[in-house]
Design brief:
globular; Citrate Synthase, domain 1; mainly alpha; three-stranded antiparallel beta sheet; Cytochrome p450-Terp, domain 2; 2 domains; binds coenzyme A
Length: 375
C-alpha cells in the first residue's frame, strides 16, 4: 500500500515518467533485469564488456564480437595532453567525483560529439578512458606520479585496478571488479539516469548528459552511499561494537547509509552477489573483520527496522579488501553506470519529447510590484 509520502507525490515515487526497454527494477526475476536478463545471471556468467555490449547495443556479443569490442575499447584509453594538464591542476583535496565531472566535461571540449551519429563512439571513448582518468589524477595528486594509462590490461575491470595500483591485479580482484561493474551498470529511472535523460531531452550532447549524471550520482543518498557505508563500518571495532553503535544511531534517528531503497521493498538483488564476494575477499586477505561487522549491521537493521542492505553496503568492505581508497568508490560506480546512462540517452534521443513536468504552486497570491523607492 502506498505510504503518505508516495500519496503526496514527493520524489515522483511510483509515477511512470517515461518508457524504457533497458531494465526492470523490482518487477521480474530476482528484482533487476537488463534487457530481459537477470542481473544475477549476468554477474555469474559474463564479464563487464559483455554486459556493456548488451546494454548499449541490445544483445550479448558472441565471442568474435566481444573480442572486437574489447580491442576497440583498449585502443581508446589514451588521455589527451590537455586533459592530463587539467587533471594535474586539480588538488588532492578535491572530491574524486568532481574530478570525474570535470574530466568528462573537458573531454567534451576536446572531442565534442558533433552529431548523434557519434553517440556510440563518444560512449565507448568515455568507457575506455574513465578508469585511467581518475587514477591518473589520484596517483599524480596523492603520490606525485604520472602513470601510464595505456596498460596491457585485458578489461575495464583490470584496467581500473592496474592504473590504481600500478600492477596487474590478481584474478580474484579482477573477477570481483567485473561483478561489481555489472551490478552497478543500469538501474532504470534512478536520479542520475533521470538527470541524463532530462539533459538528453533538450537534444544536448553526450558529454553534457553524462557530466550532469555524475553530479547527481555524487550525493550520499545515491552513489555516495558506498563511501558513507565505509566511513561507518571502519569506526566499528567488532560485531558487538557495531551493534551498540548502530542501536545508538537508530535511537538518534540517524540515517544508516547503504540501507533501504526507493523501489525494492524487501531486498536488493545486487546485495547477495557483492556480499558473497566480500566474504571471499576477507578470507583471501586472512581478515574477515569488516565482513563480520557488515553482517552484524545487516542483521540489526533488519531486526530493528526491517531495512535491508542495498547494493552499496557490502561494496564498502569488498572495495576496501582490494585496497581501493574510500574516496574512489563512487568513481567506480561512474565507470560502470556510464553504460546505463548512455543507453538511456540514446533511447531518449530515439523517441524524444522534451521532459518538462509541471509543479504545484505553493507560493504567495498574485501581487503587483511596489516601486523600488517605496519599498
Ligand atoms: C535509498 C533511500 C534514499 C530511499 O528513500 P525513500 O524511498 O524516500 O525511503 P524513505 O525515506 O521514505 O524511507 C521510509 C522510512 O525508512 C527510514 N529509512 C529509510 N532508509 C533508512 C536508512 N538507511 N537508515 C535509517 N532509516 C531509514 C526513513 O527515515 C523513513 O522513515 P519515516 O517514514 O519515519 O520518515 C533511503 O533508504 C536512504 O536514504 N538510504 C540511505 C542512503 C543509501 O544507501 N542510498 C543508496 C541507495 S541505492
Amino acid at each position: 500500500m502506498a505510504n503518505a509520502k508516495e500519496l503526496s507525490g514527493a520524489g515522483l515515487r511510483g509515477q511512470i515518467a517515461g518508457k524504457t526497454a533497458l531494465s526492470t527494477v523490482g518487477k521480474t526475476g530476482s528484482g533487476l533485469t537488463y534487457r530481459g536478463y537477470d542481473v544475477k545471471d549476468l554477474a555469474a556468467h559474463c564479464e563487464f564488456e559483455e554486459v556493456a555490449h548488451l546494454i548499449l547495443k541490445g544483445e550479448l556479443p558472441n565471442e568474435a564480437e566481444l573480442a572486437a569490442y574489447k580491442k576497440r575499447l583498449k585502443a581508446m584509453r589514451n588521455l589527451p595532453q590537455a586533459l592530463k594538464e587539467v587533471l594535474e591542476r586539480i588538488p588532492a583535496s578535491a572530491h574524486p567525483m568532481d574530478v570525474m565531472r570535470t574530466g568528462c566535461s573537458m573531454l567534451g571540449n576536446l572531442e565534442t560529439e558533433q552529431s548523434f551519429a557519434q553517440q556510440q563512439d563518444a560512449t565507448d571513448r568515455l568507457l575506455a578512458i574513465f578508469p585511467g582518468l581518475i587514477n591518473y589524477w589520484y596517483n599524480f595528486s596523492h603520490k606525485g606520479q604520472r602513470i601510464e594509462v595505456e596498460t596491457a590490461a585485458d578489461s575495464i575491470a583490470e584496467q581500473f585496478l592496474w592504473t590504481l595500483h600500478g600492477e596487474k591485479p590478481t584474478q580474484l580482484h579482477t573477477d570481483v571488479m567485473n561483478s561489481s561493474l555489472i551490478l552497478y551498470a543500469e538501474h532504470e529511472f534512478n536520479a542520475s539516469t533521470f538527470t541524463a535523460r532530462v539533459c538528453a531531452s533538450t537534444l544536448s550532447d553526450m558529454h553534457s548528459c553524462i557530466t550532469g549524471a555524475i553530479g547527481s550520482l555524487r550525493g550520499p543518498l545515491h552513489g555516495g552511499a558506498n563511501e558513507a557505508a565505509m566511513e561507518l563500518i571502519e569506526k566499528m571495532d567488532n560485531p558487538d561494537d557495531a551493534e551498540t553503535k548502530l542501536m545508538g544511531m537508530l535511537e538518534r534517528k540517524e540515517k544508516i547509509m547503504g540501507f533501504g531503497h526507493a523501489i525494492y521493498a524487501e531486498s536488493d538483488p545486487r546485495n547477495a552477489v557483492i556480499k558473497e564476494w566480500s566474504e571471499k575477499l576477507g578470507k583471501a586477505n586472512g581478515n574477515t573483520s569488516l565482513y563480520d561487522i557488515s553482517v552484524r549491521c545487516e542483521a540489526v537493521m533488519w531486526r530493528e527496522k526491517k531495512l535491508f542492505c542495498n547494493a552499496d553496503f557490502f561494496h564498502a568492505s569488498a572495495y576496501n579488501y582490494m585496497g581501493i581508497p574510500t574516496k574512489l568508490f563512487t568513481p567506480i560506480f561512474v565507470c560502470s553506470r556510464l553504460t546505463g546512462w548512455a543507453a538511456h540517452v540514446m533511447e531518449q534521443r530515439a523517441d524524444n519529447r522534451i521532459i518538462r513536468p509541471s509543479a504545484e504552486y505553493t507560493g504567495v497570491e498574485p501581487r503587483s510590484v511596489t516601486p523600488l523607492s517605496s519599498r
